């Protein structure tokens, strides 16, 4: 237990993290998700039809991974990554924060900790209990209760417009593959031009992958 009541990692505004969630059979899933952090409250809007929503509804556990790899953002937005990308972990301090439905299932308790999964390559992660507070035809809204966090590595990342442009293009691309909107395509094309101009090797690889996914 690190004694904190709130995360020191999640910043104000929208934090584009890679969420790792898991289902009842222990199959982990990763997807880019925005944590909306305003006035000291963290919330999620999860669209229906995603594994992330299904998993969070099932066990209320949401692990936000901080990574700085544009390829991973593109990959996890469009496909299911393999088990080799994930690491099993146990949260000692989850019990008091536990979703009721999860407390009934103690099969995966190790010591007094609760099992969760994170990305192997995470530089840091923040573990939350997600509580559903609303629903519309397209999505469910969750309030996030902080459980614990860990800083694994502290690499320094000089700001790169190419990295930011890949993330922006990927957000538009997840909508573009459904709507095929010309307006979205124009935004993606602009982002890709910035990614190519300002990005490094990984941004270029991410752009190549993105173009394949939106073909
Ligand atoms: C940067 C970024 C942020 C995203 N934020 C959200 C979000 O907050 N909620 C959501 O439902 N989908 C969001 N998406 C789209 C999901 O990542 C996408 O639908 C993904 O395919 C869901 O994967 P899953 O079915 O494995 O959960 C975001 C995508 C990107 C690239």
Describe the structure.
The structure is a single chain. It contains six helices and eight strands. It has helices spanning 51-59, 70-78, 100-103, 161-179, 182-198, 201-213; strands at residues 13-22, 28-38, 41-47, 61-66, 86-91, 114-119, 124-135, 139-151. Helix 2 runs parallel beside helix 6 (201-213). It is globular, with a radius of gyration of 17 Å. Mean pLDDT is 92; it is low at 101-107. Flavin mononucleotide is lined by residues 16, 29, 31-34, 45-47, 50-52, 73, 77, 167, 170-171, 174.
Which ligands appear in the coordinates?
Answer: flavin mononucleotide
Low-confidence stretches: 101-107
What's the helix count? Answer: 6
In CATH's first tier, which class of the largest domain applies?
Mainly Beta
Over all CA atoms, what is the radius of gyration?
17 Å
Along the chain, the helix and strand elements come as: EEEHEHEHEEEHHH
Shape: globular
Structural class: alpha+beta
**Main sheet strand line-up:** 1-2-3-8-7-4
Number of strands: 8
What is the H level of CATH, i.e. the homologous superfamily of the largest domain?
Electron Transport, Fmn-binding Protein, Chain A
The CATH topology of the largest domain comes to Pnp Oxidase, Chain A
Give the second-level CATH assignment, the architecture of the largest domain. Roll
Q: Would you tell me the overall average pLDDT?
A: 92
Main β sheet profile: 6 strands, antiparallel, barrel
